[in-house]
Amino acid sequence: MSSIESTDVVVIGSGFGGAIPAYHLAAGGARVVVLERGPHLSGEEFEHDFKLGSSYTRVFDFVVGDGMSVLGGNCVGGGSVVYFATMPRAPGFVFERHGSIGRRMWPASITRDVLDPWYDRVSEALPVSMQTWDKVPYAGGLFAAACAHAGHTANPSPAAVDVERCTNCNWMMAGCRFDAKRSLLLNYLPAAVAHGAEVRPLHEVQHLTRNDDGGYRVHFRVVDDSDYRILHDAGTIDAKVVIVAAGAGATPVILQRSADTLGAMPHATGRYFSGNGERLNTAVFDEDRVREVLGLTRGDGQAYAANQIGRGPTVASWDRLDGTLPEFERFSLEQLYFPPGLGTILAQTPDDGDPRWFGVEKKEMLRRWQSWLTIFTMSEDDNEGVFGPPPETGNAHRFSQQMLGHGPLRYRPTANTWRGWNLADAAVKDILERDGLAKVAPWTNDLVGAYTVHPLASCRIGDDPETSALDDRHELRGHPGIFVTDGSAVPGALTVNPALTIAALAERAVAGIVRTAQERGVAVTYIGDLPEGTSSSLRAVAVGA
Amino acid sequence: METEAQNQDPARVATLEAFADTIVPGEKRSPDDRAVAGVAAGGGAVASGALQLLEEPAGGISEALDALVLGLNDHATEYAEAHGVALDDGVPAFVSLPYEHRAALVQQLTTPGHPEKQVWVGLALFSNMAFDSASHLGTAEAFAAGHPGLLTIGFQPPGEDGLNRFPDYSYGRPLADLHPDTTATGSPA
């Protein structure tokens, strides 16, 4: 009989929720193994190519659910490799939200003020930097000018991008070829490995079982390198502590599947999913009106025609992030880029009539693709997503060899969610159609449901055991030694891009995880240094703050 | 860009082409082209290689195509009966439908609540991807071959090293007032 591999801590997933605890635990002396479902790509492996099988289709997943589809990372570095690196902090009112549960959704111990020192740390480690107008790409500039024309403010969003290295190629979703995007491949993950952590790509965790010593056995399958529909060997690793950070579309599925052996999961596991209130509108600009009304011209004489140029979202309007407004009526609007393919099929022609997402008029709209501007709404949805029974393996029935699958998430937007979306649609229309600048229409929800790139809250922290699967230390209720530190843990929609908040919560959770690991006999201390290469000015955040 | 498909059952090919052409229509390849309805100028999904992409095993839809062809023509026959549209026996039922009826049928099949919605949306998604992202080809290769879809949308081709770079990218000046509550870190308060 072969010996069972064991370690101190297994981390499932290598995005923000996984890489940050992996780094701190390894730095503190724990033996750490990170199991990542996707491949390990970096630098020159990131291609500018739409071909099936290129990095573009290998590093992210698009999981179609019933009423909601989720786009997420599927690679070492997780979401940080495929995201657009827009890193605002969540506005203070978000932490006071009640949603529909009649009480504060967030734990009493967490407010914006409490989280600010943790935001500071992540901002330094990645790093995140303020952006300046002189480096804002055309699309962000166009949105800013349209906002100003309509009497609104607009801000260049803080970003984890080294603008000096950036070529504004807009291929960020395929991984950054130029190492300009400050993904986890450049900070927390190499630092974790330098401290002895092992990162194992193409290891998809299926479920957990409990050992007699109170630790856990993590059961995985090895995923084929090129055809993710094919699973190879099965294996196990024992650990005293398990950190589940597979992303909000996968973490609850692993836990649900584990209920057969671990016992019942908390009621909120796989419930209260939020799509971060996300919705998209596409505008097609009249180039002449851009020049005449907004006075914009590029060096080459064109007014805009620059949809392809840039680095994802760079400018946002925060006028509706007003804590005095009623809940479900607050949202931010952000200029965004989506590549062709997934970014065009759902866009609708602005004029009424059928069909609006395909056909003759849609093709005419596609001819003007370089004059498109996509506006991203992040609002307050109602945490109405629920995961059904888990698929046989993974978090989806994989349809294509990479990227496309069907998952068990069901989402039926409530009237509250629609209130925010309708207000945001109207605001976008008012800003962009003013004086004939553009014609605008929201993306259709008819094909793949609503669409989120920021899945949240499917296994969330909170004070109320009925509506939160985790306590405020991110420990899974009723299953000591299991922690969840990814977007699943965020209680609800944030009205802004969530990556910095997910990362800050993970930073905050580490000290508590270390204490539990110590109680379980792991020789580990919480040092709290940031990955090498960042300054040490933020080392002194009080443990447990 | 249609080599492999040409060797297959002509009715199967025509049906799939007619579906792809409904999603992103193009001009007829010849006066007697039945599959392509010819309702839009320039190449559409068919000329962009939609059949090649659909036949890619990596896409996951290739094994279902035979069943989809049968299903689509059954739906087209029912549709024609329900709407009093005369069909031409010489071609598959879906191919026989005029464009506006093909579009109306696709609209029905992809409407929320239709039991087969998922597969028809998948077929539409791949048809669209063939046109605007040439996912069956390398992007550089697609440009070299004069891919109609990428050229129609005006996608800027990669440079000689296969990479896009845009050295001119900014209007270079402030274009709006900042939100008054912006914090020192550049975030909302």
UniProtKB/TrEMBL annotation, chain A:
Domain Glucose-methanol-choline oxidoreductase C-terminal: 451-506
Top-level taxonomic group: Bacteria
One Pfam short name: GMC_oxred_C
Keywords: Cholesterol metabolism, FAD, Flavoprotein, Isomerase, Lipid metabolism, Oxidoreductase, Steroid metabolism, Sterol metabolism
EC numbers, comma separated: 1.1.3.6, 5.3.3.1
GO MF terms, alphabetically ordered: cholesterol oxidase activity; flavin adenine dinucleotide binding; steroid Delta-isomerase activity
Biological process terms in GO annotation: cholesterol metabolic process
SUPFAM superfamilies: FAD/NAD(P)-binding domain (SSF51905)
Listed pathway(s): Steroid metabolism; cholesterol degradation
InterPro entries, alphabetized: Cholesterol_Oxidase, FAD/NAD-bd_sf, GMC_OxRdtase_N, GMC_OxRtase_C
Cofactor: FAD
Domain Glucose-methanol-choline oxidoreductase N-terminal: 68-267
Family: Belongs to the GMC oxidoreductase family.
Protein's recorded name: Cholesterol oxidase
From TrEMBL, chain B:
InterPro entries per UniProt: DUF5987
Pfam families assigned: DUF5987
Identification of the protein by name: Uncharacterized protein
Organism of this sequence: Dactylosporangium siamense
